[in-house]
TrEMBL record:
GO terms for cellular component: plasma membrane. It is found in: Cell membrane. Keywords: Cell membrane, Membrane, Transmembrane, Transmembrane helix. Its main location: membrane. The chain crosses the membrane at residues 88-111. The lineage of its organism: Archaea, Methanobacteriati, Methanobacteriota, Stenosarchaea group, Methanomicrobia. Residues 17-111 form the PDGLE domain. This is Cobalamin biosynthesis protein. It comes from the Archaea. Signal peptide: none annotated.
Amino acid sequence: MSIMDSFNKMDKTFRTLIICLIVLMLLVPIGLIASGTAFGEWGPDELQQAVGYVPAGLQQMTGLWSAPLDGYDLPGDHETIPTQTPGYYVSAIVGVIGAGLIAYGVGKVIIKRND
């Protein structure tokens, strides 16, 4: 069975969701042309500058987690948009797969609980 056969047998709603996710993943590098930082992705220093203070809880948890692809960037020196783009795509793919696996797991638990 080919990928297209599997795709054609999918539920219409699920197929639409897959198409939307693919389109959104292709559009991910658009963020590279925006100035400043993405909304809600501020570090304590940027939050201090924007609103004048850093909540105590955020200050305490600052070093707790280190992102695997910090700044959506692959290891190495990437100064231009074309060299930064692969990191954005990898981040999008990892995020979609991670969220999909979590949703799948939660769905399995809910189905098992309802049986």
